[in-house]
Amino acid sequence: MTWTHKNLLGLEGLSREEITFILDTAERFHEVLDRPIPLVPALRGKTILNMFYEPSTRTATSFAMAAKRLSADVVGFSKASSSVKKGETLLDTVRTIESMRVDGVVIRHSCPGAARFIAQRIDAFVINAGDGAHEHPTQGLLDLSAARKRLESFEGRHLVVVGDITHSRVARSAIYGFSTMGAEITVCGPATLIPPHFKKAFPNVGIETDFDRLLADADMIMMLRLQLERQGKGLFPSIREYRKLYCLTAERIKKAKPDVVVMHPGPMNRGIEIEPAVADGPNSVVLAQVRAGVAVRMAVLYILAGGELEH
Fold first, then answer.
1. In CATH, which of 3.30.390.30, 1.20.140.10, 3.40.50.1370, 3.90.190.20 is domain 16-136+290-305?
2. In what helix (H) or strand (E) does residue 303 lie, and over which residues does it extend?
């Protein structure tokens, strides 16, 4: 197929064929990563700017590694050491850096829509690495990539997403991505952590507050990080209570299908949203998600930059 998008701002609106194209391209890069020297010259001469206005270890490192594996030059940017602290606007910062002839911008920002705002105003391609509670498209793609290796097809499969739905960009990208690929989705968590407008925004997604009711029918379970920084806002009684009701424990997973796929975007609060025995157990694809992250981001950079692979 022919890819027609300049940017990757979200999974919303992408077709099944487009998502499959990215996942299939990522498979080729998995093969590259298995080589003794995991390097291809596909983006030699290209410059990728990583702009992270929020703290990030996994995503920022994964994008930097992906770009370097493609032989691109990588320029890092952090808010703490930039002119942003002197009052420079986001647009001024990007325009200043674009004048230095970068080819692509990877941006994480706390404001929903920040990536789209930039993409509409610069010539370089833009990849959304997370914008507030809106979307995190490459996370959604790597989740699909890791799960696809276990399930092969998502048609008619049931994904249960558990945790803080209100504040999770990961949940939204998962909903767009997995539903497009044919999966049925149910979100689960305390009622205070599910947006009141959720059913209107996602009419085909189920809502449940009782985790145990969903276990027997789940083909995939995605545990979201409990954002402990929000715990003091009274959104749930206590961490102890949350763990009792929503932690994926070794006992709880016995109620699920033997081949249920367990995912977690990380970082994990072990023992709170998921027990170590489950996170490291045979049903878990957590490490596969991390590994898929580099291959998927290589694929996205390669596609958007118009790179060429040697055969």
1. 3.40.50.1370
2. helix 286-305
pLDDT tens-place string over residues 32-84: 999 999 999 999 999 999 999 888 888 999 999 999 999 999 998 766 555 55
Cis ω before 267 (30° cut-off from 0): yes
Q: Tell me the whole-structure pTM to 2 decimals.
A: 0.93
- Is the pLDDT assigned to residue 2 strictly greater than 70? yes
Q: Are strands 220-223 and 158-162 parallel, antiparallel or unpaired?
A: parallel
Give the architecture-level CATH label for domain 138-285: 3-Layer(aba) Sandwich (3.40)
Compute how many other C-beta atoms are within 10 angstroms of the C-beta atom of residue 264. Answer: 26
Q: Which one, of 137, 246, 157, lies nearest residue 194 by Cα?
A: 246
The phi, psi pair for 226, rounded to 5°, reads -75, 115
Q: Which two tokens stand for residue 186?
A: 């149910």
Spatial distance between the Cα atoms of 22 and 214, rounded to a whole number of angstroms: 30
User: Closest by alpha carbon to 148, among 178, 171, 176, 172?
Assistant: 178
How crowded is the C-beta side of 119, counted as CA atoms within 13 Å?
20
**Distances from the Cα of 292 to the Cαs of 8, 136, 143, 148, 266, in angstroms?**
17, 15, 8, 11, 13
Residues sharing a CB contact under 8 Å with residue 201, sequence separation 6 or more, in sequence order: 195
The structure tokens listed for 208 are 């449940």
Contact 139, 290 (CB under 8 A): no
